[in-house]
Amino acid sequence: MKGKVYGGWVLFLMVLMVSSAYAEETIAIGVAGPFTGAYAAFGAQLWRGAEQAANDINAAGGIVGKKIQLFKGDDACEPKQALAVANQLVDRHGVQAVIGHFCSSSTIPASEVYAEAGILHITPASTNPMVTERGIATLFRTCGRDDQQGSAAADFIVQKLKAQAIAVIHDKDTYGQGLADAMRAQLQRLGKKEILYEGLTRGEKDFNALVTKFKSLHADAVYFGGLHNEAGPLVRQMKEQGLKAPLVSGDGIVSEEFVIAAGGPAYADGVHMTFGRDPRKIKEGQEVVDRLRKAGFEPEGYTLYSYATLQIIAAAIEATRGTDGVAMAKWLHAHEVPTVMGPKGWDVKGDLKTSDYVMYRWNDKGTYDEVVP
Amino acid sequence: MDATILAQQAINGLILGATYGLIAIGYTMVYGIIGMINFAHGEIYMVSAYLTAIFLALAQFAGITSIPATLVFVLFFTLLVTALHGWFAERIAYRPLRGSNRLAPLITAIGLSLVLQNYVRLSQGARSQGIPSLMQGSFILPIGSAGGSVQITHVQLLIIVVAFLGMAVLTFIMHRTSLGRACRATEQDLTMAALLGIDTDRIISIVFVIGAAMAAVAGVLVSLNYGSFDFHIGFITGIKAFTAAVLGGIGSLPGAMLGGLILGLSESFFSGFVNTDYKDVFAFALLVLVLIFRPSGLLGQPMVTKV
Asked: Which residue of A has its CA nearest to B275?
């Protein structure tokens, strides 16, 4: 270097060197979801899945010789906080790919931040159609869509339960209402009309007035778009008031938490829900399931989705020999990736090519089984 | 309109309203005596829900099997520990700021509510917690059209009985005992009461303790009724109970109960016969209407500025 070298410049260069040396050692991946707040149980699923995947990949030597380092971003399932978390992950931690968020209402605003930064963003759990409908090229998901999920539920209620008077309830959230709308649209296609379409308030526990209303309208099936926190008290109060109509819901109640929120297995018994084919039963994932169980964590719900998501990110980095979001997205659109949940491939929007929603039924032991079609 | 459904909705509203009323007492008494809104009160109620689960487990551990004995055990200890929380809250967050700017205690109240929420979250976890149903079964009363019947579960009946019993005991204390007289005197004029030999600090502490105890009663009953709770339930219930207190006339004891019942019934009827979506909008619109025509609430006394 010729001429004068100013102290400030030296310092600046040193910082640059240190930070780039740091970046060479690891690949920073963000895991965003509700780690606190009412929906923290789902955040724990995402984190445990990603953590296990990172440990497994690192133990096998990392990706392209680098180790994976995970950064937690807590959005508490609130859109505003999700935006802050997204900015923090990108600006402060410099993540090169993101797993998350959980709630669709968080994923949608946060995805704009990742898209702007050109980062690969894969959500393992946000099922609202709008997530991928907005045409963000670097956004993918490893779960199904609510329109597929809602249709599966409507088909089941009409064809299997043979319900005539169907009440549709949601929690006024992007996910919950989106699911209820999708289910309602399919009902219409089947030539049925719901007797009731209303939204309850998240965070409340008393839905007795609503349940009495179901009774007065002689509902013979109730569909709920929302999460377990409200579904639990709702089904308990339905049973307490002696309503025989079954409750059908979506993947927002796929957690043991639902049984707790309902007040015990006796209340959860008989509730139906749509969810992807149980990932714990897919043979590719057996080793991982055993490992997580040995560590004392039941890989329910979205745990394995999160694991698979990190595998997909790792495969894309490996294939493109870099972390450029656009290049990785291009590769993912054209290739199928083997994961713990079997091979996964994507359409142009970033949705999975195959949807595998099936109906489950909670039993009196507090677990759920697939309903035999 | 079907009489059966009408009666059932009235019962639903009554139960909801009774719990709002119990919690509203804490807001109304604290406001009455030191003129501040204790925004951490909803969190005190949430703490009592957790304590219910803890003492229920302890009761089982201690070998108490009969249901009435368990209930008394749980109610007594939950009340005790929750009241302690109320006492500490006043001691730590409000007493050092007494006499300062009116805004300062309001801000510590919000701070305290965050502290309580996170203290429970960190010690008990963010997941929902559940308790086993102690009492199952319900009474079925034939009302209305042929074959129509209204039902009330045993727990719900217990809620109504205990809420009104608690209210009666509290009214007795406030109007017939020397402690109540001291409370009323302090409420009227803090400085004058102190000059006349009333230990006003002690009275203020007692008011916080009573408010917390009433929230504890609500916490036990509501936990038994819904069977589950999480660290977040204090927020929305707190806002509703606060609304009830304002509706009834903040500072007035019967007003708190009345406000709770009106709020519970209006939510229940609106949700049952009109639309659940706008239930809260209706409740708050009602509040605004009442405040326009009776700025001090339904049973509130208009504030007289002392000269």
From this structure: A198
